[in-house]
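Issue 218. Parser rejects a valid record. Input:
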Amino acid sequence: MDKLLVEDRDRVATLTINRPAVRNALDWETYDALTKALAAAEGDDTVGVIVLQGAGGHFSAGSDLNDFRRPRPAGDSPGMRFLRQLAAMTKPVVAAVEGNAQGVGVTLLLHCDFVVVDPQARFRLPFVALGLCPEGASSYLLPKRVGVRTANDWLLRARPFDAAEALASGLASSLASAGAVREEAHALALELTGLPGDALRLTKKMLRHADEGAIQHAFAYEALHFGECLRNYEVQAGFERFLERRANSKPTEVPR
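Output the parser choked on:
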């Protein structure tokens, strides 16, 4: 089964993370597929907007913990390459979030232009609880987006939060009607395709220009410390215990 489904229609490229058995946890293959699909959409003149969503009623449970136990590749990890590509997109990106969004399934939203959420969506940034540090430039972007106090609460305490709080804080851009998040995200994407593409891309560039250097610095700074965390014996032992508990019964997602 393809781990990423890609549909191009009406100038909208819809990317569906397709690992429903593990609540769309992102393994290295899925990260690579996402990076290639985003790059292809960026270079395709027939695509005006990208929609990112998950299969099976969930957005993404974050990175697949099995990959955290593998030797890390030299240079950027597959997840880091994906995040850099997402941050570099000049075309609007709309996220349709339902079910669970955890870890990188939340931090990647900071690089999307619109985040449409289902009223029952649930969010968590569990890095500290796992013995890890933030990634995806979230240590820089999250306080700017939602405020320092809320960022402290979500990151330092790893406290779950709901769709209403995501909207009130500014992480989400709109709250969909119950069960209609995909339809409303695609309607928004179609609306955007009806606007002049050059003006859309230029305006997006202007909105993000001041933060470009800081985001790249945060990517590198976080990745350095994230790698150090992964080399910690106690962190790896925690992953192993968690995966053993989940074996044959639950997806390899971060704990709630």
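Fixed in the parser; the record now loads. The longest strand covers residues 4-9.
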